[in-house]
Write a structure and sequence with these properties.
The protein has about 425 residues and is α+β, with helices and mostly antiparallel strands. It has five helices and 20 strands. About 25% of the residues have low confidence.
């Protein structure tokens, strides 16, 4: 009898342990369910109400959302999506990461030294600044500690009138391709050519004196600016990688892209985090003639691990891609403050305008990867102090306006709408 009672006790204990273990597994393997995320700017992260983030969770109040930002319509580019093959099988759970707005002086100094700035970082309420002549580095106290560096060589310029001091002005003018040559910017209007005078000046109509003929000589086209002798794509990538490595960015598993421009080659380095690629958390380095870094931007804060979340599945992710807003030429996630460098006078140039709407494109999904998408918090004063890097499906595209689109893979019940 005593042996039977002992066996029953052992069996009961084993049952309790198994049940408790099952509960732990069901609740995420760590004794609790993953936390509901705070109010995040999911529109900036590429997921809107049409994409599936419905009010499954009680929405958080949003006094911090800027009324000006809400009033501005984002110019979405026309694009549709189709599958180029079967969707792959991906993990059904993934970890999120959280990133704050703090960075120590040593990290800022290391970046400044890598950029060749011979000045000490200065800390203020809004972050850090480093000035060295026309070159300047700004690190903001915002989510991710975004930084922006400019050399002032090909940055913001101002018009210079009559050889006088620098004054704010229109800078580069824009030609209207449909307007007559004589009415283009910089030319004399009809009836008002040089030498014709005004209605009350000698030699003008109404004075009894002959009016000089109006010159209809066409405006000479502006000479094109000389194209800089840019380094090769491989050399530009080498310069950008060297800068990032010396500044402390982990390059293992990073995705690197090189884009050709007129005055620079732009190198984008998207670091990996926990073995997964990231979106919206990249560094950009613009390399100009002679391999000189003319502009750079990125994030200095170190992400910390957050909860592990179940995922919606790749098929649902593709449906959200189809319903999500189209990629915008404006990048709403990172709003760095331009470095306070001395502005350079604009060259005398006129560029043709092209106000015609862009045609629609059909993007083919050529692959899908599990990665992380940056989503800043909605906070008071529209200055987010933290952000999350959320599990997301990174859709590789061909024939679209962008090469990759990221769709958040976290279920609605963990997302809070602002």
């Amino acid at each position: 009898m005593g042996r039977r009672v002992g066996a029953w006790v052992v069996a009961a204990v084993v049952t309790v342990v198994l049940v408790a273990g099952g509960v732990l597994v069901a609740r995420g393997g760590m004794g609790r369910s993953p936390a509901v995320l705070p109010a995040l700017d999911l529109d900036a992260a590429g997921l809107d109400a049409a994409g599936g983030a419905a009010a499954a969770v009680e929405p958080a109040p949003s006094p911090a959302r800027s009324s000006a930002a809400g009033a501005l319509a984002r110019p979405w580019l026309p694009e549709t999506y189709r599958l180029g093959g079967p969707l792959p099988a991906l993990p059904d759970r993934a970890r999120a990461w959280k990133v704050g707005d703090t960075v120590d002086a040593g990290r800022v100094a290391t970046l400044a030294a890598a950029l060749g700035l011979n000045a000490r970082p200065t800390q203020g309420p809004a972050g850090w600044t480093v000035h060295d002549g026309r070159r300047s580095l700004v690190v903001q106290r915002l989510a991710g500690a975004p930084f922006s560096y400019g050399s002032g060589i090909f940055g913001t310029c101002v018009a210079r009138a009559g050889g006088g001091p620098y004054r704010p002005g229109g800078g580069i003018q824009c030609l209207d391709p449909d307007a007559p040559v004589a009415s283009q910017p910089g030319s004399s209007p009809a009836g008002g050519a040089a030498g014709s005078g005004s209605a009350s000046s000698p030699g003008s109509a109404g004075t009894g004196r002959p009016v000089p003929p109006v010159s209809s000589r066409p405006v000479a086209p502006a000479r094109p600016l000389p194209k800089p002798d840019l380094p090769s794509r491989a050399e530009a990538e080498r310069v950008a990688r060297d800068l990032a490595a010396r500044a402390g960015l982990e390059l293992a598993g990073a995705t690197v892209r090189v884009t050709d421009g007129y005055a620079t080659r732009s190198v984008t380095i998207a670091p990996a985090l926990g073995g997964q690629p990231t979106s919206g958390f990249a560094w950009t380095v613009a390399v100009g003639a002679k391999g000189v870094v003319q502009y750079a931007s990125g994030f200095l804060a170190t992400p910390e691990p957050a909860d592990t979340y179940p995922l919606i599945g790749v098929a649902e992710g593709f449906e959200r891609l189809r319903k999500s807003p189209r990629p915008s030429p404006l990048v709403p996630m990172a709003r760095p403050v331009a470095p306070a460098v001395e502005r350079v006078p604009c060259p005398a140039a006129k560029l043709p305008c092209d106000p015609k709407p862009l045609p629609a494109r059909v993007a083919t999904v050529t692959g899908v990867r599990l990665g992380l998408q940056r989503a800043p918090a909605v906070t008071e004063g529209n200055r987010p102090s933290f952000a999350y890097l959320l599990p997301a499906y990174l859709f590789d595209l061909e024939g679209g306006w962008t090469d990759v689109r990221a769709i958040i893979a976290v279920p609605d019940r963990y997302l809070t709408r602002p």
